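Project outcomes to date are best conveyed with an example. Our students and postdoctoral researchers have been running inverse folding experiments weekly, and each run begins with a structure described purely in tokens. The record below, which covers 110 residues, was selected by the lab manager from last quarter's runs and is presented without edits.
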């Protein structure tokens, strides 16, 4: 599951990343909810990150748009995701490789 994947990477320190650099454009290339408390965001088409929020959000999987707080062009675990007017604090951010992101997307479609 996505949670297990994130926990394994965070525990091992492998590619764990608490910050997403948004670049000078200030936005994400894409995003996809994979559960009620996890989403994948692509900083670029080839740089996906698994973002876990502290509590489940019922509207996350059906949201058309989301927002993030950021500081100096970076999103960190100290920022928030906004979904349907709800402020959802970020619990963790873990860098993924594109194949892992594809697998999580596929699993979330089941």
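After processing, the design step wrote out the following sequence:
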């Amino acid at each position: 599951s996505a949670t297990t994947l994130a926990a394994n990477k965070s525990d091992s320190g492998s590619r764990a990343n608490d910050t997403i650099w948004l670049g000078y454009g200030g936005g994400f290339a894409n995003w996809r909810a994979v559960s009620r408390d996890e989403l994948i965001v692509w900083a670029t088409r080839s740089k996906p990150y698994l973002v876990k929020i502290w509590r489940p959000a019922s509207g996350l999987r059906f949201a058309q748009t989301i927002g993030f707080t950021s500081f100096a062009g970076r999103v960190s675990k100290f920022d928030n995701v906004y979904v349907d007017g709800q402020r959802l604090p970020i619990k963790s951010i873990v860098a993924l490789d594109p194949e892992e992101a594809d697998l999580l997307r596929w699993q979330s479609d089941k």
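Helices lie at 2-12, 98-108. Residues 2-12 form the longest helix (11 residues). The training component of this project remains on track.
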